[in-house]
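Per reviewer request, we include the raw input and output of the structure prediction for the construct analysed in the revised manuscript.
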Amino acid sequence: MKKLVTILLLLFVGLQQSNAQKKIYVSDKFEEFSKDHKIIAILPFQTTLNLKAGQKKYSEAQLEKFEQEEGIAVQEALESYFLDRKRKKKLKINLQDTNNTNRILKKAGITDKNIDIYTPQELCNLLQVDAIISGSLMSRILLSKEVDTSFNLITFLKGKSDYGKIIIKLSDKHAGKLLWRYEKTINRKSGKNTYAIIAKMMRKATRKFPYEEKK
């Protein structure tokens, strides 16, 4: 009986994990809006941290600093992933160096806290790029640090196996249209840190990422 219960639980876990929230949207007008795209910029991600119970209590200033660092970590991880694709000649566009992106944003007084009041057109014009990759991260742990990726049945049954959610968006300069969007729940199987999580996410989304070279 115990073996049967264990097998059923494992099957249930596998089904739940395979059905983990993952949504990809590609605009049916992507080719029309992106035909002249040559360079894109990756923005720091807007991050909301809700650190899990039992962790050290942090001040508001410390949490704000962590959120900025986590947002930059996602930005850098995406840059690393796309540069690797570019080296392998699997990406059709060029990337603006994220250090330059961040300097321009800082000079204009744009931060992770107020960036959402600017339109894609305004940000593209400021950065002098054809499109931007932006997004949000909601997490109850610091993903930029090493995280525990081992499976814990008790944690899963308590509904605490998910760490948060990440949304990645690609928007066009001219019409400000959303061209591509990827939403994914982050859990223990997603990866041990931000770089691993982004790499795994994007590998799975590669066939539906519009700038990928098609064989």
